[in-house]
Amino acid sequence: MHKKIFRSSLLTVCLVLIATIALIMGFLFHFFEKQIQAELANEAGFLAQAVENEGIGYFDGFDDKNSRPSRNNRVTWIGKDGTVLFDSRVDASELDNHADRDEIKTAMKDGKGMSTRYSKTLTEKTVNYAIRLSDGSVLRVSTEQYTVITILMGMLQPILITISVALILTLALSARVSKAIIEPVNRLDLDVPENNDTYEELTPLLRKIANQKETIEEQLADARKNQKEFNLITENMSEGFLVIDADANLLTYNSAALNLLEITPPADRSVLLFCRAKEFRGVISDALSGIRAEDIMARDEHSYSLIANPVFEGETVIGAVVVILDITEREKRDTLRREFTANVSHELKTPLTSISGFAELMKAGDVPEKDVVDFSESIYDEAQRLITLVNDIIKISELDGQSIPFESEPVDLYELSKEVIGRLENEAEKRQVTFHLIGDRAEIMGVYKILEEMLYNLCDNAIKYNKENGTVDVLVNQTGDSVNVIVRDTGMGISPAHQGRVFERFYRVDKSHSKKVGGTGLGLAIVKHGAMYHHAKISLESTVDVGTAITIAFAKI
Amino acid sequence: MRNKFDRQLSQLNTELITMGALCEEAITNAVRYLTDNDEDSRIMCLDADTQIDKKERDIETLCLKLILQQQPVAKDLRIVSAALKMISDMERIGDQASDIVEIAPYAARKGTLGETHIREMAEAAIKMVSESIDSFVKMNLDIACLVIEHDNIVDDLFDKVKRELIKSIAEGQDDAEALMDLFMIAKYFERIGDHAENIAEWVIYSITGAHRKNSEKPLRKEE
User: Fold this and answer.
1) Are A127 and A142 in contact (CB under 8 A)?
2) Searching chain B, which residue's CA lies closest to the CA of residue A281?
3) Would the pLDDT of A67 be above 70?
4) Which among A145, A153, A389, A480 counts the fewest CB atoms within 10 Å?
5) Distance in angstroms (rounded) separating the CA atoms of residues A542 and A425
6) Does residue A507 have a pLDDT over 60?
7) What's the rounded Cα separation, in Å, for the pair A81 and A87?
8) If you write DSSP's letter for every residue of A155-197 in order, what string do you get?
9) Does residue B220 belong to any structural domain of this protein?
10) Domain limits of chain A?
11) Which residues of B touch A273 (CB under 8 A)?
């Protein structure tokens, strides 16, 4: 803008300057020409009068060129037939007939004539004025005048100096003027367009800028808010979330997806760079062809559920949204549930098969009288086993669902242990196992029934899986912030491979001996759920053929 | 115009990744069929091979289109020409995986398979294929160099398996013909390793502009 204003003003000044010079020259020239012509006519008039009075004799005085120094105009006298009778500059006899000259012709016809002739170089102009005398001859006066070009050439130096001075002045002034015009525009503070005190022509523009600025800010704030909400939602999802375009290039992802797929920046590349598993490719190509797709993908010992939804714009698919869920835990739970169901059915079926078998034999009447009692006893035992099993399952589901509210009360674990040991004394004697109760009174808040069940199961296991002449130590002690019950036996122990699983329902280390040892396979599961109910921690230490110690740490009251 | 070119290059990249993933699938399934005799794996392997063949034609067409219409230069040209070379190696990997599946039923798999180092060979070959595709996907020079080093492991294992099989034949432990089929499978794994190595070399070429076999330059830039 600065440049443009500068250039325009400079150009304007130059044009004005040139036009002025041209016009002045033109007018001056025209004015002088008129004056010369008037002078010529005047002189011609006087000369004609003189010639009329004196005849050719008048020209005698012209011979001495210096006698009339002021006379530098050329005077020619031309006879009626056009022959030159006298010329003040050249010998008349050397000149040819002048009858065809414009001014002569006009003068002969009209009494006076005028013509202008340019020299070959155009640097000089001759103005002729002819007047007819009474005898028909013609008197002509000529004078030379410089042409415009000559005058210009002569004045070149002053003109150039003038132009140069004017140009320098213009340059300086134009620069200052354009700067001064631009200055307020440059000083505009576009952050607060309305606060500017500047040309009033700019006010509508500034107002418009202010309005648009406001609109843009609002829209930006909206967009930022949306983005923030979106980020909050996606970042707090534990599911991986991906948005891809129609060419499967990654557009957006959340940090969960970043972790699941190990995405490394820059991320705006094909999503297949980060995962090219068959299932993943499958759901993506399905989604990009417009079909919702689901699949399960295994990767690094984890199972992921993939859900891909196409994103439509009108009829065309412009991308897809992929959600990745880590379903490893769920899959594991599903497996456990399936195993549990299979185990329950098996455990329920075994005693029922026996009962049904014995009953069938008795029904057929094939059983001798003396065996009926034995058979009945077997049926009774199996039925008892079933009842215990069903009771255990009910207990576990009660603890599991925590549906029945239990009354918490202060329970002395030492007393409780004593009581449980008392109840198991017979069993222990049968297997030649001795109990030691070590420790002191330690009260906790808990549900007596559940705690009793837990301790009973632990001690029962300690007897069942003990060796002959083994011992079971029950320790009740208090540490910093917990009350611990430790049941330690000197039995067969549990190998590390099984240690993690013994608390699962129906899990048995040695499946083939379950019948011999007895039990429902739910004992430790009940202990685990009881501990969970009381927010207690269970830990297990065991060495094969040395023994097992299970510690339950309750929080102190 | 440039935009279209970029899009085509990115499409080429995606197609190559897909083809690589199919190769991984083909060989993994072939190995699973060989060791576990899982019928599904056999079908999946043959299916992957069919898809690989189709992908090869698709990518070839795309590459030629790129060269003719866009006339790429410098790195872009290297990528396109390396792609053209890579797909033939990938296609061979697919073929060899299906060859393994075809002769697996006749090979001596019981007993002998466990006694030889074929399993290790298979695992090493799968790893090489996986890593060569990885090196391409991530355009990673280090992984590519690692693949080339790994080829020695597969070659050594092949020698080991060869000696083991010769011993078995000499001792008359198993049907000699079945042992020879097993030997063929070992050879296929060895070839798969070579193809994976080739892929890695083309990856290096598209990154550095120097092909290992044609240049005396060191593979890694001196740091």
Assistant:
1) yes
2) B18
3) no
4) A480
5) 24
6) yes
7) 16
8) HHHHHHHHHHHHHHHHHHHHHHHHHHHHHHHHT--TTSGGG--
9) no
10) 2-152, 191-235, 237-326, 331-401, 409-555
11) 17, 137-138
